[in-house]
Backbone:
């Protein structure tokens, strides 16, 4: 058990002796405060006796105590309101974090889908480029074949003309021969 000390105090020119435990400094602060309050009442009321000064001083100190208690109560109520507001904000933050995480997952899924779609588009573009190259080669081959066909048609036409000429010559020879044969027979 802590040792008790005896403290000498003076309030309104009256000496007091108190027993105190470890709170000696606090008791001295309180006695100084009480003495100052009572001195201010005595200065304001110089012709009032000590009992009235003590009563008025006690009332002043009590008023300050009640005011401080009311302020503490209001402060506590304000603190409770602020804690409620903080809790609401925490709940909203938790909901926002949950929504954010869901959106983050959706974003990852969409990014994966985008990558797959991009790969498919790239594959389709490659296939399209192959078709375009094949079509270009087909056009080139078609143009080459068309030219070849035209050349062959021209050659055929020239061959037909040659054939007609040859046939004509041959027919003429046959006609001449036939005429010659007829002339010889005659």
Residues:
């Amino acid at each position: 058990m802590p040792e008790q000390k005896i403290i000498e105090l003076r309030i309104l020119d009256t000496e007091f002796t108190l027993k105190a435990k470890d709170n000696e400094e606090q008791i001295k602060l309180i006695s100084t405060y009480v003495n100052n309050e009572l001195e201010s009442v005595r200065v304001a009321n110089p012709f009032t006796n000590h009992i009235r000064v003590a009563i008025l001083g006690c009332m002043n100190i009590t008023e300050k105590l009640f005011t401080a208690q009311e302020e503490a109560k209001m402060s506590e109520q304000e603190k409770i309101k602020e804690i409620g507001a903080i809790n609401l904000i925490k709940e909203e933050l938790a909901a926002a974090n949950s929504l954010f995480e869901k959106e983050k997952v959706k974003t990852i899924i969409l990014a994966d889908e985008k990558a797959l779609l991009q790969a498919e588009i790239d594959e389709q573009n490659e296939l399209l480029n192959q078709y375009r190259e094949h079509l270009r080669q087909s056009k080139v081959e078609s143009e080459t074949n068309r030219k070849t066909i035209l050349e062959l048609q021209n050659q055929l036409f020239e061959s037909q003309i040659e054939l007609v000429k040859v046939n004509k010559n041959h027919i003429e020879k046959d006609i001449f021969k036939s005429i010659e044969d007829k002339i010889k027979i005659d």
